[in-house]
């Protein structure tokens, strides 16, 4: 099978296709023929070692010194089960599934083994493989942050950076949980966030949300431009600031800011729980949460997908569609 490997840290040119044996599922695993995967902001960060300020040394310790320790990137997939291990009863060959491997990565491949009791669920029948592949990265991140914030119906939520993968999930899920949602984005994307359920839009290029008089119960920052000092004046008493993207210094200051203000700062990596994938499936089946897809690329053009993600202005997710066998057919025709 073909896999995309990252030879060293750098631009999209460090990615190469290589041939690997199709893995065999263990007794508790399923083997999935991958139909679609995504290139997301985590793939960009890991491929290029572009980490938020302060995380450089820690990042290399965790992810590798000169190249990613796990050279096959990709944390989301959708595809078909083609084999199951001897102890698996939850899935059978032919089932369409989607999965989130999170920091385990390894989804930029034609076949992937997954623990049957891990973050994998049946694909919502009404969703394409491309849509199902794009459900988890933003969705699971925001389920975790909203859980930690104990978001309640009727609260006022502001999402700064509302049009990326995490932002579009933040808007939809806040609306689903019954919040009043304000989205901060470029004016040209106002229609998109309104269609996702935002009640109000602030143009990030002409207005400063932090200079307004509205107080928010929860502020979500996916852009890294809303640290505590900026948000504090517009955070309600007992408000929560969710720093999906934060510098190391901002993260380390979080407990102190929480202690002295009574307003909670919640930062750090989202927990990866299998349960989130099942919740996302239910939400997608009920059409309460659907991924936004910016562009779709064929597997052969995965470098171009990375180039697009690198620009940092995608609206929702970038999907890569995989058609096993196509490349071999083309090669043998040459
Ligand atoms: N803590 C965690 O566990 C966790 C999990 C997932 C992701 N993340 C981090 O969260 C960040 C967002 O991830 P993503 O996948 O959603 O990225 P993404 O899809 O690339 O989206 C980035 C968003 O930021 C917006 N943006 C850029 N500059 C901005 C500014 N100055 N003011 C307001 N908005 C701005 C972009 O909108 P425009 O198009 O208007 O520029 C876009 O909507 C990444 O840095 C990622 O590493 C953290």
What does this structure look like?
The longest helix has 14 residues, at 136-149. The strands form 3 sheets. Strands 3, 4, 5, 6, 7, 14 and 15 form a 7-stranded mixed β-sheet that branches. The chain has a 6-stranded parallel β-sheet with strand order 10-9-8-11-12-13. It is α/β, with parallel strands linked by helices. It folds into 2 domains: 2-135 and 291-333, Alpha-Beta Complex (Quinone Oxidoreductase, Chain A, domain 1); 137-267, 3-Layer(aba) Sandwich (Rossmann fold). The protein is built from 11 helices and 15 strands. A hairpin with an 8-residue loop joins strand 1 and strand 2 (15-19). It has helices spanning 41-48, 56-63, 129-133, 136-149, 165-176, 190-195, 228-231, 248-261, 274-285, 302-310, 326-333; strands at residues 2-6, 15-19, 29-39, 76-84, 96-100, 111-115, 120-122, 156-160, 180-185, 200-203, 216-221, 235-243, 264-267, 293-298, 317-321. Residues 40-41, 45, 138, 141, 160-161, 163-167, 184-186, 204, 222-223, 225, 244-245, 269-270, 312-314 line the site of NADP nicotinamide-adenine-dinucleotide phosphate (NAP).
Q: For this structure, what is the CATH homologous superfamily of the largest domain?
A: Medium-chain alcohol dehydrogenases, catalytic domain
The whole-number mean of residue pLDDT values reads: 95
Q: So, CATH architecture of the largest domain?
A: Alpha-Beta Complex
H-E order: EEEHHEEEEHHEHEHEEHEHEHEHEH
Counted up, domains total 2
- The N- to C-terminal Cα distance equals 19 Å
